[in-house]
UniProtKB/TrEMBL annotation:
GO biological process, one term: L-histidine biosynthetic process
InterPro entries from the UniProt entry: Aminotransferase_I/II_large (IPR004839), HisP_aminotrans (IPR005861), HistidinolP_aminotransfase (IPR050106), PyrdxlP-dep_Trfase (IPR015424), PyrdxlP-dep_Trfase_major (IPR015421), PyrdxlP-dep_Trfase_small (IPR015422)
Protein family (similarity comment): Belongs to the class-II pyridoxal-phosphate-dependent aminotransferase family. Histidinol-phosphate aminotransferase subfamily.
Protein's name according to its UniProt entry: Histidinol-phosphate aminotransferase
Record-listed E.C. numbers: 2.6.1.9
One Pfam entry name: Aminotran_1_2
Group of enzyme by EC: transferase
Assembly information from the UniProt record: Homodimer.
Gene name of this polypeptide: hisC
PANTHER family in the cross-refs: HISTIDINOL-PHOSPHATE AMINOTRANSFERASE (PTHR43643:SF3), HISTIDINOL-PHOSPHATE AMINOTRANSFERASE 2 (PTHR43643)
Length: 388
């Protein structure tokens, strides 16, 4: 045997230098941009309490899901051994029928979050830029970071998306503009005319993503979720979710309506069975149960008004909202801060969402829950402010 060779267990010659490299202990390293990502932290449930607890940190439907959707989930358990329809054909057809769309221009995902991830995989690479508003949904930036892209945050105007500020951020490197309308966490919206003006100012190669997670809650005459723009142009995507008013957050289900060429690209990067059969069947039942949606909307309108009035009475300067949550502003004063209020409420069995990560350190986002939960959060805040 030559001095520069050894044998492995299969009697295969391996150069000594190579053998030493193989035995050197190393570990796989992720892409550099991945280590810069701060993982998304969801709203938490209240701490254990001897009394009732109310989770008002995640904008969930306090009425739960449609009875029809729950029955669909129960029926789905009878054939769990079968793979789901990878194309979600029946679900896409149900969505298309509900909104008068072309089912071939609809794609479904595990929540609208996955749709954003698909867009990042298909259209972003290192050095590209995305644009969002200053207080935009945190997932947009995560999508950019995963691709090594840069996030530019446009200043808002009184907590409303500012079209001119976004257009001022556009460069030759801009690939995607993400707009949540209504916006999370502010609860504000911009009119369809403003959205159209934004689109008109964008280069044709830039994708405008209209995130309509809370669209079903809006009943303003000057609002539209974006279906018309998608139908008219080649660079607009509208996303929706079943997690909010439909109450299917646990199943992770969302969808997008987009031009055919974008849908084709997204299908090429999605997982082959990315939406479970259970979620598909529940989604079909939910979107066909418009009576439950209207009941949920009426409940939200009533309790949002109560919550807003109560917060205003406490001097917490709530932001008028068209969604199922309200942003409340707290004094920049030790003992009365938003973070301290959130911790106090948690001891009372009520969880709300602190907004530090959204660059709103003096605010709390409070979901519109049941009548009892509205009472609990208002009485808890009254006690907190009185004690400080």
């Amino acid at each position: 045997m030559k001095s520069d060779e050894i044998f492995n267990s299969q009697d295969v010659k391996i150069p000594i230098v190579k053998a030493r490299m193989m035995t050197k202990k190393q570990r796989p390293e992720p892409l550099p941009q991945i280590l810069d990502i701060s993982p998304y932290v969801p709203g938490h449930a209240p701490s254990p309490s001897t009394g009732r607890v109310f989770k008002l940190a995640s904008n969930e439907n306090p009425l739960g899901a449609s009875p029809a959707a729950r029955r669909a989930v129960e029926e789905a358990t009878s054939h769990l051994e079968v793979y789901p329809d990878g194309n979600a054909t029946r679900l896409r057809e149900a969505i298309a029928e509900r909104y008068g769309l072309d089912a071939n221009r609809i794609i479904c995902g595990a929540g609208s979050d996955e749709i954003f991830q698909m867009l990042g995989k298909a259209y972003l690479e290192k050095g590209d830029e995305i644009i969002q508003s200053t207080h935009g949904f945190l997932v947009y930036e995560l999508v950019a970071q995963q691709a090594g892209a840069i996030t530019k945050s446009a200043p808002e105007k009184q907590l409303h998306t500012d079209v001119d500020a976004i257009l001022d951020c556009v460069t030759e490197k801009t690939k995607i503009v993400f707009i949540a309308n209504p916006n999370n966490p502010t609860g504000t919206y911009i009119s369809f005319e403003e959205v159209r003006r934004l689109h008109a100012g964008l280069p044709s190669h830039v994708i405008l993503v209209l995130d309509g997670a809370y669209a079903e809650y809006v009943r303003a005459n000057d609002y539209a979720a974006g279906i018309e723009l998608v139908s008219e142009f080649e660079n607009v995507v509208m996303t929706r979710t079943f997690s909010k008013i439909y109450g299917l957050a646990a199943l992770r289900l969302g969808w997008a309506y987009a031009p055919a060429h974008i849908i084709d690209a997204l299908h090429r990067v999605r997982g082959p069975f990315n939406v479970s059969e259970t979620a598909q069947l529940a989604g079909i039942a939910a979107i066909q149960d418009q009576a439950f949606l209207e009941t949920s909307l009426a409940h939200n309108n009533e309790q949002r008004e109560r919550l807003f009035a109560g917060l205003e009475k406490l001097g917490l300067d709530p932001v008028p909202s068209v969604a199922n949550f309200i942003l409340a502003k707290f004094p920049e004063k030790l003992g009365q801060s938003a973070v301290e209020a959130a911790k106090f409420l948690d001891t009372k069995g009520v969880s709300v969402r602190a907004m530090v990560s959204y660059k709103l350190p003096h605010c709390l986002r409070i979901s519109v829950g049941s009548a009892d939960s509205v009472d609990a959060v208002l009485s808890g805040l009254e006690e907190f402010l009185a004690a400080s």
